[in-house]
Amino acid sequence: MAERVLRLGTRGSKLARWQADWTAARLTQLGHQVEIVEITTTGDANQSHDLGAIGTVGLFTKEIQRALLADQVDLAVHSLKDLPTTPVEKLTLAAVPEREVVADALVSGIARSIDELPQGARVGTGSLRRRSQLLRIRPDLQLLDVRGNVDTRLRKLDAGDYDALVLAAAGLTRLGLQERIAQQIPFDQMLPAPGQGALGIECRADDTETLARLAPLNDPTARAAVIAERTMLAYVEGGCLAAIGAHATVEKGELSLVARILSSDGTECLAAEQSGAVDDAVAIGKRVGEELLSLGARRLVQERR
Length: 305
What we know:
The protein is of the alpha/beta class. It has helices at residues 14-29, 42-45, 62-69, 128-137, 150-158, 169-174, 208-214, 220-235, 281-295, 297-304; strands at residues 6-10, 34-38, 75-79, 91-95, 104-108, 122-124, 142-144, 164-168, 183-184, 199-204, 243-251, 254-262, 269-277.
């Protein structure tokens, strides 16, 4: 009997299609047939609006998860930084492939680093996390909202609407736009979003056939790192609106996690760090979350809400 075709659900943006095509190519190499199904999400339909005002978490994932639950697709590929940490019953994270560069990137034609930006420079970002960390180190900057996909944002920069943008280095790299990166921002200046640079491949928890096909795509090191980051985020109930950055690294079997939560204006910054065995990713994430809460993180999360 012929093997069933895997229906892969994805957003239709250029970056989302890159992620879906990459996943489909890997599965094809393993001998499986894949059909890509494009799904429009709330976030895609509201790119011109303040996403924080539309309805908090799951803007780019809910419709795709509904399609999974309704058996309209067999798997979905998400940017893990967009995937809410609250588990969805009957769905599971089947694979986390090898991770792309994690850092945020400064894109600018007038400066090679954040430190080189002129006084009062206009920097475009739609992220509270990036905004707060920028204000922490450069309170003189004019931080302006920017919406749209990567190409749209770059066009606005080139048209002179901004002096610089801050974007995920992973997205630029995946789209072949590495030459636009003026600086990979150092982690002491800006911690990335939990899960940034990682893909999450999701499927139904009882779909043993699809789970088996996806297993070779999983990278245990990347998975452990993002589990630690996302566990911390869930523990402090940060959602997608709080200014929370995190970065986990794995070296010689040891996982280290550093996290930071800031006030909206960047004047207050709480930081925590823990390390341990790579198999203890969940426990490490919880310990960092506990440390942040003991320092007063819940007040900063509620401030934004």
